[in-house]
Amino acid sequence: MQDFGDILDNSVLLVAVIACLIAQASKLIVELVKNRKLDVRVLVTTGGMPSAHSALVTALATGIGQTTGWASTEFAIATIFAIIVMYDAAGVRQAAGKQARILNQMIDELFHENKEFNEDRLKELLGHTPFQVIVGSVLGVTISWLASPAY
Q: Are 141 and 56 in contact (CB under 8 A)?
């Protein structure tokens, strides 16, 4: 049970999770401003502005750098991990979302009159634009710097 207490005492981890939650919650505000409607589903979906994944991994890497040093092996590992996650969010997952959009359009056109096709539509909002990833990254670094007294 002490191990769980140690996890809760890990301020770097907690700040990273808080950065992720703030980024995810800010999607609600962005959605409200952009579409003038309150859509709480954005709180639990992937994609959108800003990238919560980017906020999480950059806050984690920044917190590790602040606590173990910028030349530490731990910071190097966290930084490489963050780069991979952000590249995936803006690259692979973004491409998968575009493919899903095209497939959904093809299904709509092919089965327009035939209502027997009842498969679920593919999820189109999977990844992020590079701008969404950058904004998430800036948010993560900023939150980690603001929380530095907690380290």
A: no
pLDDT at 37 (0 to 100): 84
Q: Compute φ and ψ for 46, nearest 5 degrees.
A: -90, 165
82 contact partners, CB below 8 Å, separation of at least 6: 54, 57, 58, 60, 61, 137
Q: Can you list the alpha helix ranges (DSSP code H) found in 2-151? A: 2-8, 11-35, 52-68, 73-90, 92-110, 130-146
Amino acid present at 7? I
pTM of the model: 0.78
Identity of the amino acid at 38 = L
Element (H, E) at 116: none
